[in-house]
């Protein structure tokens, strides 16, 4: 057994002094295996979301809670959940899917403020954050907080209410989930406070798109207490990453063994530079390990 | 520390390769890029790596089709795993 496997990892006469695993045919086979694995995971996440829970990790409840956590950390009052704002946020997300765009302003010129108005929310101050391609809420909030314009919305002292839309759909041919945060303070509140100076919504510049997977039914529209999906699922992104890291680790370790033995035995052969290949794969491995979820724009 | 003979023979070439990798890493992690931009950084890095390998083996005098294919397969392997896991 030991002997039969050694030619995969150790350069020897049997494998023409090149570990079999490093040969082109084997590398192509590994790419093929990875492709099949990736396709299978994608199939499960899209067609059988319950299996891997791709659509279940982020919920509006979690976004709501963590947004308020960020505000509380800075000594700001938590935002109140507003079902009208959530309605406008969900409509915005659905509109992006329907018209296949990903921006604050729709191709037909509809602005976020139009969604707020059509939902019946009369605001004095308002803002919008967008996100797509995020798997977990922590990464989503982290990305927003790392972006000055999005953070400005989350910790804006003048906002009193929030609505969150988390909608699954297909955007640009790719199944994904859009997360929309609509912030606002109703006109009545400002009038009561006699501030008299209402901010212009456009001055808030709060926009971001992060792809996330969350379940729209997690929020019940007319309730301040949001339902929460307590189920725990396997993160498909992590699954992909783990599989990729294992394959890379195998190749890099074999390259090290191969390089060390050929160096020690003084074997001369016509192959690529082992040092450069190890370096290249280590760089790619770093990319995989520290890849970021989601897209911010 | 064991320094492979190939590195001792052509230290400048490996320093250039190191710089290519370093620039790629810096742009990927600290550049103001979107996911698409980061993907372009990866493609550029791979293209530079392939170009480096051609020059390296040409200067070493052992540039052959089998070596070119080996680098191409390695590059494809890296790109495939990375980009697929970024989807």
Structural features:
heterodimer; A: about 300 residues; alpha/beta; 5-stranded mixed beta sheet; two-stranded parallel ribbon; about 50% helix; B: about 90 residues; mainly alpha; 4 helices; about 0% strand; globular
Structure description:
The complex is a heterodimer of chains A (297) and B (87). Helices cover 49% and strands 15% of the residues of chain A. With 297 residues, chain A is an alpha/beta fold. In chain A, the strands form 2 sheets. Chain A has a 5-stranded mixed β-sheet, sandwiched between helices. In chain A, strands 1-7 form a two-stranded parallel ribbon. The longest helix of chain A has 30 residues. Chain A starts with a helix and ends in an 8-residue tail after the last helix. Chain B is mainly alpha-helical and 87 residues long. Helix content of chain B is 84%, strand content 0%. Chain B is globular. The N and C termini of chain B lie far apart (39 Å). The chains are: A alpha/beta (297), B mainly alpha (87).
Number of helices of chain B: 4
Question: Helical percent range of chain B?
Answer: over 70%
Oligomer: heterodimer
* Poorly predicted runs of 5 or more residues of chain A: 52-56, 194-232
Radius of gyration of chain B: 15 Å
Structural shape of chain A: elongated
The Rg value of chain A, from CA coordinates, equals: 25 Å
């Amino acid at each position: 057994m030991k002997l039969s496997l050694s030619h995969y990892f150790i350069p020897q006469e049997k494998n023409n002094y090149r570990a079999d695993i490093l040969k082109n045919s084997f590398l192509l086979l590994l790419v093929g295996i990875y492709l099949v694995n990736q396709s299978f995971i994608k199939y499960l996440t899209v067609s059988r979301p319950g299996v891997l829970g791709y659509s279940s990790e982020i919920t509006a409840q979690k976004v709501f809670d963590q947004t308020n956590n960020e505000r509380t950390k800075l000594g700001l009052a938590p935002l109140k959940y507003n079902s009208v704002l959530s309605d406008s946020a969900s409509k915005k997300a659905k509109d992006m899917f329907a018209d296949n765009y990903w921006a604050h302003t729709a191709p037909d010129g509809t602005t976020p403020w139009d969604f707020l108005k059509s939902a019946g929310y009369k605001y004095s101050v308002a803002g919008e954050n967008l996100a797509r391609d995020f798997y977990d809420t922590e990464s989503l909030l982290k990305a927003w907080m790392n972006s000055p314009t999005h953070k400005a919305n989350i910790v804006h002292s003048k906002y009193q209410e929030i609505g969150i839309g988390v909608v699954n759909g297909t955007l640009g041919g790719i199944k994904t989930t859009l997360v929309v945060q609509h912030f606002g303070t109703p006109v009545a509140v400002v009038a009561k406070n006699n501030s008299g100076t209402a901010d212009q919504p456009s001055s808030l510049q709060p926009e971001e798109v992060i792809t996330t997977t969350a379940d729209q039914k997690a929020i019940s529209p007319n309730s301040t207490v949001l339902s929460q999906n307590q189920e725990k699922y396997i993160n498909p992104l992590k699954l992909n990453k783990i599989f990729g890291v294992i394959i890379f680790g195998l190749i890099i370790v074999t390259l090290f063994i191969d390089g060390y033995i050929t160096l020690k035995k003084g074997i001369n052969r016509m192959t690529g530079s082992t040092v450069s290949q190890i370096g290249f794969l280590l760089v790619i491995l770093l990319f995989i390990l520290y890849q970021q979820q989601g897209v911010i724009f | 520390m064991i320094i492979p003979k190939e590195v001792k023979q052509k230290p400048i070439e490996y320093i250039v390769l190191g710089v290519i990798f370093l620039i790629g890493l810096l742009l990927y992690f600290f550049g103001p890029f979107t996911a698409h931009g980061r993907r372009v950084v990866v493609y550029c890095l791979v293209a530079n790596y392939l170009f480096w390998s051609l020059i390296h083996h040409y200067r070493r005098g052992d540039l052959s089709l089998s070596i070119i294919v080996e680098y191409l397969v390695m590059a494809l392997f890296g790109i495939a795993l990375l980009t697929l896991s970024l989807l």
